[in-house]
Design a protein that fits this description.
Chain A is an alpha/beta fold. Chain A is built from 15 helices and 11 strands. Chain A starts with a strand and ends with a strand. Chain B contains 5 helices and 3 strands. The mean pLDDT of chain B is 94. The chains are: A alpha/beta (384), B alpha/beta (160).
């Protein structure tokens, strides 16, 4: 098990459905300030490289990477943007530290979702212009198709997805960072507005604003910066088919490949025995179940028992999204992976408050870039 | 600094033209094909793909990196798109370098793509969206403003 790079500082600002009182720059500044304090570093003196994640159309600004250095303390410093999920950005910083080009790096991811007025229209522009756009379907239709196929091949029912919603929104009540905590009855979830049958509005994570900054350091100096370094012991990421026509709709081979890459690096043979908890993608409730199988944590045939028997609950054998996941903390766009990651870091540090599970040693974080992508990343974390 | 040595072993590019008839995917595919042929490798030899392409508005895609992924050879492979504005074409080989130098990969494919002619009638209009939405965009600036301002200052400073 490699321990080359550690997370030595985390900071965040948010998370809430709207944040009209400050700009994305002010949000990033607040998160950066906290992360640098947590890691005891001065960004101008100590951090050698910065990575941000963003997509131009979501930000409403082209060449958005030009708008992030100032509030991070990164002016006149090496900095680049990864147009991917926050975990992709984290992995880029991890690779740079491993390469030896820098010893300390910072990663920033944010969402100012409340600035986005026409999200479905923007997402529509991510579709193939010849084969898919002319149909002018709502992007959630793709999720409805995938959910239908997945429920068919896994022999699950929509009610299993309702239980995921109930679990994660309840978990969020114990997480002070989660704006969408709610003690739903199943009937209230099932009464949700149909979006693309069997997908209901209640199955979809709602947008939220928030910012996360993470500081990473090389092994030799991590201990001097943090009394509780959290080690990155495995990373993996993968893309599948872009075109809708070429996809395997009932499984997530790209999540599987990303996980296998991370497990190989972490020397994990049987993930379900080693991993104490998981913070994974649940932008749509069915995706949590789909991802659990793709990650090799729960066989497809045991998914229903896992959710109905309580294994995925905070007191279960494999607590999943104890933070509330995206259903409870909101859809933070490219910051979703980092939101999952800071919750895993808090768990491993023993600082998760009412959400804390007993003495976790190894945690798994997984993200997906959302509709219509087939892009996923996995990070395995451990304490010493 | 004891860094792992990394070499460029193959390269390829498409013809540069005012208005390419190929789609952005086709342009990326042609360059990848030529690069792989130049070093007698196939996609099976490629362990990860790095892609660089700048403003999405030029190609007319949200998440342009995802659109280009298959054509760039990233099907079921680790794939990441980087972005440093106008410096992206130079930065993406650096991204490929740190992938290999990290020790996680031995062979990485680096792809840079841009199709500016999709923006009709001219890509200059897309540059309006690079400016600050509150204090600059209302003035409807373009790149020539920046260059003229910088040229003015430079010539004044150095008496040219």
């Amino acid at each position: 098990m490699e321990k080359e790079v550690a997370i030595v500082g985390i900071g965040w600002e948010g998370f809430q459905p709207t944040s009209s009182h400050y700009s994305y720059k002010e949000m990033i500044y607040q998160a950066a300030k906290k992360a640098y304090h947590d890691a005891s570093v001065d960004p101008r003196k100590d951090i050698q490289s910065f990575v941000t994640v963003a997509e131009d159309f979501i930000e409403g600004t082209s060449i958005f990477d030009e708008y992030t250095p100032d509030q991070l303390g990164a002016a006149l410093k090496p900095m680049h943007t990864i147009t991917g999920d926050g975990l992709h950005g984290l992995i880029a910083a991890y690779l740079m530290i491993r390469s030896g080009i820098c010893q300390i790096a910072a990663v920033e991811a944010h969402s100012k979702a409340s600035n986005v007025k026409t999200l479905p229209h923007i997402t529509h522009y991510a579709l193939d212009p010849f084969l898919n756009r002319p149909f002018e379907f709502h992007p959630d239709f793709i999720a409805g198709l995938e959910m239908t196929r997945f429920l068919h091949v896994s022999q699950l029912r929509p009610e299993d997805c309702d239980l995921i919603v109930q679990k994660n929104r309840r978990n969020a009540l114990n997480n002070p960072l989660a704006p969408y905590g709610c003690d739903y009855r199943l009937s209230e979830i099932q009464d949700g507005r149909p979006v693309a049958y069997p997908l209901l509005e209640s199955h979809i994570a709602q947008p939220a604003d928030g910012t996360i900054v993470i500081v990473l350091a090389k092994r030799e100096i991590a201990a001097s910066l943090s009394s509780k370094p959290v080690w990155i012991i495995g990373v993996g990421w993968c893309n599948d088919a872009y075109n809708l026509e070429y996809r395997d709709w009932g499984d997530l081979p790209y999540v599987t490949r990303a996980a296998q890459m991370a497990y190989r690096q972490a020397q994990i043979q049987t993930p379900s025995k080693i991993i104490d908890f998981a913070e994974i993608d649940d932008l749509y409730a069915y995706r949590e179940l789909m991802s659990l199988t793709a990650l090799g944590l729960v066989p497809k045939s045991e998914l229903s028992d896992a959710i109905r028997g309580g294994n995925l609950y905070p007191q279960g054998n494999l607590p999943v999204n104890v933070s509330g996941g995206s259903l409870g903390m909101g859809n933070l766009f490219e910051a979703n992976g980092c939101a999952r990651l800071i919750q895993a870091v808090l768990q491993l540090r023993g600082e998760a408050g009412k959400s804390q599970i007993p003495s976790p040693q190894v945690g798994l974080v997984q993200s997906w870039r959302g509709i219509p992508t087939t892009s996923a990343a996995v990070v395995v974390l451990a304490v010493s | 600094m004891n860094l792992r040595k990394v070499a460029v072993v193959g390269a390829g590019m498409t013809q540069f033209v005012r208005r390419a008839k190929e789609t952005p995917q086709e342009l990326a595919y042609k360059a990848v094909r030529t690069a792989l042929d130049s070093c007698e490798l196939t996609l099976n030899d490629i362990e990860a793909v790095c892609l660089g392409t700048a403003p999405d508005s030029f190609d007319g895609f949200h998440m342009n990196g995802e659109y280009l992924s298959q054509a760039a050879g990233a099907f079921r492979k680790p794939y990441m798109r980087s972005f440093v504005g106008g410096g992206t074409g130079v930065f993406v080989p650096i991204q490929g370098w740190y992938h290999v130098a990290s020790g996680l990969f031995d062979v990485v494919l680096v792809v840079a793509e841009e199709k500016m002619s999709s923006y009709y009638p001219h890509a200059q209009a897309a540059f309006l969206t690079i400016f600050d939405h509150t204090i600059e965009r209302p003035l409807k600036p373009n790149l020539l403003w920046i260059f003229a301002l910088e040229m003015n200052r430079y010539m004044t400073t150095y008496g040219l």
